[in-house]
Structure to design on (365 residues):
C-alpha cells in the first residue's frame, strides 16, 4: 500500500498535501504513494468533499445576508461616532478653556484695579461702632464715600484659656 | 475630488489604509465592500450563528474605522482584519453565550438554521430538503469541533489562508496550526463519514 519512506498512509501528510503545504520532494512522495494506495485516494477525496460541504454551507449562509443594509448601518454609525468624537473633543477643550478664561479675566480685572485705582490706604473716618461682650462692629467711611463694615468676634475668656492649653 | 479619482481605479490595501487614515469616507465604504463577505464568512464559520455574525461584522468594521490611525502596517490589512474578527468571535462572553445557546437550542429549532431558505432561488423542494439536511449535518459536525480547531479550519478552508498566515492571525505556532487542522479534519471525518456512507 505504501511506497514512500515516510510512515505508511500518513494522514497528517495527506492533510498538508490537501492544503498545498508540502515541499516538492514531499509532494512527489505523496503522489507516488497515492498512485498505489486506493485507501489514501479515497481519504483525499473525502477530505476534499467535507471541505467543499463546509464551504458550501458558509456560502449559503453568506448569500442570505443583506450586505447593503449592513453597509448602510455601519457607515451611519461610523459617521455618528466621528461627529460625537469631534463634539466631545470640543467639549473637552471647552471644559479647560472656560475656567481658564474666567480666571484670566478675574486676574486681569484685579490687576487693572491695582494699577489704575490703588485702594485707599486708610478709611477717612469711623462713622459708628458697637462693642459687645462677644463681637464688635465698626462702620467706616471710605474716601469714595463707600461705607465699610467690619464685624469681628472676640474670643471669650473661657475659649482663650482652652486655646492656650 | 480625491474620492472621485479613487472610484475610477483599483485601490490596493496600502493606499486604502492611507486614505482611511486621512479620514476619507469613501475609502471606508470601499473597505466595507471589499471585506464584508470575508469577515462575515469567517464569523459564521466560527459562530454558526447568522445574527451573531452580522453583529460581529458591524463591530469589526466600526473597530477598524475607530482605530485605523493606530494601524502601523506591521501585518497586512487583511491579516489585521482577520485577527480582529477572530478575536471578536472568540471573545469569552460570546463563547459562553454560544455554548449556552447550543446546549439549549437543538439544530433546526432556532429558525436561523432551517427556516430561512430563500424559496425562489432553489430549483425544487427535493433540493431544498437536501440542502437543509446538508446544513444541519455540517452545522452539527462543525459544532462538535473544538473552537480552536474550528477557527483554524475556517481560516484555511473558507479564506484559503496559508499556515503562516493562520499562525499570524491566531498567534499560535506553525506546528499547532498543522496539528489543529489535522485534528479538525479527522473529527469531521468521524462525524460526517457515517452520514455519507448512509446516503450511498
Amino acid at each position: 500500500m505504501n511506497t514512500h519512506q515516510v510512515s505508511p498512509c500518513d494522514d497528517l501528510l495527506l492533510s498538508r498535501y490537501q492544503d498545498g503545504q508540502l515541499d516538492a520532494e514531499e509532494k512527489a512522495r505523496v503522489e507516488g504513494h497515492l498512485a498505489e494506495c486506493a485507501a489514501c485516494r479515497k481519504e483525499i477525496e473525502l477530505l476534499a468533499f467535507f471541505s467543499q460541504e463546509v464551504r458550501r454551507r458558509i456560502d449559503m449562509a453568506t448569500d442570505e445576508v443583506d450586505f447593503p443594509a449592513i453597509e448602510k448601518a455601519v457607515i451611519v454609525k461610523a459617521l455618528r461616532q466621528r461627529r460625537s468624537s469631534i463634539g466631545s473633543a470640543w467639549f473637552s477643550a471647552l471644559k479647560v478653556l472656560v475656567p481658564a478664561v474666567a480666571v484670566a479675566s478675574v486676574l486681569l480685572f484685579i490687576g487693572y484695579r491695582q494699577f489704575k485705582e490703588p485702594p485707599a490706604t486708610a478709611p477717612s473716618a469711623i462713622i459708628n461702632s458697637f462693642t459687645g461682650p462677644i463681637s464688635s462692629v465698626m462702620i467706616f467711611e471710605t474716601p469714595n464715600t463707600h461705607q465699610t463694615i467690619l464685624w469681628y468676634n472676640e474670643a471669650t475668656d473661657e475659649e482663650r484659656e482652652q486655646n492656650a492649653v | 475630488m480625491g474620492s472621485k479619482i479613487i472610484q475610477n481605479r483599483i485601490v490596493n490595501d496600502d493606499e486604502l489604509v492611507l486614505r482611511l487614515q486621512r479620514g476619507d469616507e469613501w475609502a471606508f465604504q470601499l473597505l466595507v465592500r471589499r471585506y464584508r463577505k470575508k469577515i462575515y464568512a469567517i464569523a459564521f464559520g466560527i459562530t454558526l450563528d447568522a445574527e451573531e455574525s452580522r453583529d460581529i461584522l458591524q463591530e469589526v468594521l466600526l473597530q477598524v474605522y475607530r482605530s485605523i490611525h493606530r494601524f502601523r502596517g506591521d501585518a497586512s490589512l487583511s491579516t489585521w482584519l482577520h485577527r480582529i474578527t477572530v478575536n471578536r468571535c472568540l471573545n469569552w462572553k460570546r463563547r459562553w453565550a454560544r455554548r449556552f445557546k447550543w446546549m439549549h437550542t437543538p439544530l433546526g429549532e432556532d429558525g436561523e438554521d432551517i427556516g430561512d431558505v430563500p424559496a425562489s432561488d432553489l430549483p425544487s423542494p427535493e433540493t431544498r430538503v437536501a440542502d437543509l439536511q446538508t446544513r444541519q449535518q455540517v452545522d452539527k459536525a462543525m459544532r462538535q469541533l473544538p473552537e480552536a480547531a474550528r477557527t483554524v479550519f475556517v481560516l484555511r478552508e473558507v479564506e484559503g489562508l496559508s499556515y503562516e498566515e493562520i499562525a499570524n492571525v491566531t498567534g499560535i505556532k506553525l506546528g499547532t496550526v498543522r496539528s489543529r487542522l489535522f485534528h479538525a479534519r479527522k473529527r469531521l471525518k468521524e462525524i460526517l463519514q457515517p452520514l455519507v456512507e448512509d446516503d450511498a
User: Anything to note?
Assistant: Chain A has five helices and three strands. The beta strands of chain A are 125-131, 135-141, 147-153. The longest strand of chain A covers residues 125-131. The two ends of chain A are 107 Å apart (CA to CA).
